[in-house]
TrEMBL record:
This protein's encoding gene: tilS
Source superkingdom: Bacteria
Functional description taken from the UniProt entry: Ligates lysine onto the cytidine present at position 34 of the AUA codon-specific tRNA(Ile) that contains the anticodon CAU, in an ATP-dependent manner. Cytidine is converted to lysidine, thus changing the amino acid specificity of the tRNA from methionine to isoleucine.
Name of this chain's protein: tRNA(Ile)-lysidine synthase
EC number: 6.3.4.19
PANTHER family assigned to the protein according to its UniProt record, in alphabetical order: TRNA(ILE)-LYSIDINE SYNTHASE-RELATED (PTHR43033:SF1)
Record-linked NCBIfam families: lysidine_TilS_N
Free-text comment about domains: The N-terminal region contains the highly conserved SGGXDS motif, predicted to be a P-loop motif involved in ATP binding.
InterPro entries: Rossmann-like_a/b/a_fold, TilS/TtcA_N, tRNA_Ile_lys_synt, tRNA_Ile_lys_synt_N, tRNA_Ile_lys_synt_subst-bd
Cellular component, GO, one term: cytoplasm
Location within or outside the cell: Cytoplasm
Organism: Amnibacterium setariae
GO terms classed as biological process: tRNA modification
A Pfam short name: TilS
Entry keyword set: ATP-binding, Cytoplasm, Ligase, Nucleotide-binding, tRNA processing
Length: 326
């Protein structure tokens, strides 16, 4: 690896992107989530350059999912690269991947649990993730295909503490170029070529087909869509969060919301108030289907019984929606 790699446009882009999020990392420091692939390796190199200049401690965490032969060697190689770049501490965590939700979802759950453990162990407050513009486009397309609603169309956010995605506005070609320009040798995960995974099929077949049918710029357009939906979602969230303290009432074993006051708001706000009530009182996140089931007690009330959610019972009684532990 050259001691003084030339500052190319790709290297400058990755460094600038990291520099913009460092104030969010703060003096407690962060960890780069490093797989050794082009995206995370370019991120690690940019963070290793920028963080010391900003007085921000920066380390790395490498997660070995153990899902394929050679994964341990790949993890150690990534850790060695992080150490060579000057990141510290560098942690390697091997995780056990379950089966719930399929291999991709299970791996994600295990990976984020490892990130949380690494933050707790090191006292670092943020983890930097190497998602790029293509990852954002794939997320939006998956949300469209699954009918997951506005939250899915909003995609990933650059700042979703404790996670930061500095490279979300950069194309994957920029991270690959940044690695090449700095003499970095990224690892290419064979699973990223396995068409059995929906996201890989999107990357390899769907997005190129859309580009061919519609013209170039599809990924950028999807990313712009996500940014616009994020703006709207942020505004609606702020309205709901302002209303919630005035609406929430105590209920035996839980919390209650007055139906008349709820119904005076548009559905988008009501849905958020319902989710906020459940998150604040029970620490759980409702799916859209669950949220709509509860909202029918407000907008389509015909004397029906309540709604049973995991560990929560919701009924309409005395002009209130009452949320209690089941």
């Amino acid at each position: 690896m050259p001691d003084r790699p030339r500052l190319t446009p790709a290297v400058a882009q990755t460094r600038s992107a990291v520099r913009e999020v460092l104030p969010e990392v703060g003096s407690s420091g962060g960890l780069v989530a490093l797989s050794g692939g082009p995206d995370s390796l370019a991120l690690a190199a940019a963070a290793a350059f920028e963080a010391p200049r900003a007085g921000v401690p920066m380390g790395a965490v490498v997660v070995d999912h153990g899902m394929q032969p050679g994964s341990a060697e790949a993890a150690e190689r990534a850790a060695a690269a992080a150490t060579a770049l000057g990141l510290a501490p560098v942690l390697v965590r091997r995780v056990a991947v379950g089966r719930d939700g399929g291999p991709e979802a299970a791996a994600r759950v295990a990976r984020y649990a490892a990130f949380e453990g690494a933050m707790a162990e090191t006292g670092r407050a943020r983890v930097l993730l190497g998602h790029t513009l293509e990852d954002q486009a794939e997320t939006v397309l998956l949300g469209l295909a699954r009918g997951s609603g506005p939250d899915a169309l909003a995609g990933m956010r650059v700042a979703a503490p404790p996670y930061l995605r500095p490279l979300l506005g950069l194309r994957r070609s920029a991270t690959e170029a940044a690695c090449a320009d700095q003499g970095l040798d990224p690892w290419h995960d064979p699973m990223n070529a396995a068409l059995a995974h929906p996201r890989v099929r999107l990357r390899r077949t769907a997005l190129p087909a859309l580009e061919e049918a519609i013209g170039p710029g599809v990924a950028e357009a999807l990313a712009r869509t996500a940014a616009q939906v994020q703006e709207d979602a942020t505004a609606l969230d702020a309205i709901a969060e302002e209303l919630a303290p005035d609406l929430a009432e105590l209920a035996e074993g839980g919390i209650a919301l007055p139906v008349v006051a709820l119904a005076a708001n548009p559905p988008a706000i009501v849905h958020r108030l319902i989710r906020l009530a459940v998150e604040d009182e029970f620490g759980r996140t409702l799916s859209r289907a669950q949220t709509l089931a509860v909202a029918r007690l407000v907008f389509a009330w015909h004397g029906q019984e309540g709604v049973d959610l995991p560990g929560i019972r919701v009924v309409r009684a005395g002009g209130r929606l009452e949320f209690t532990g089941a």
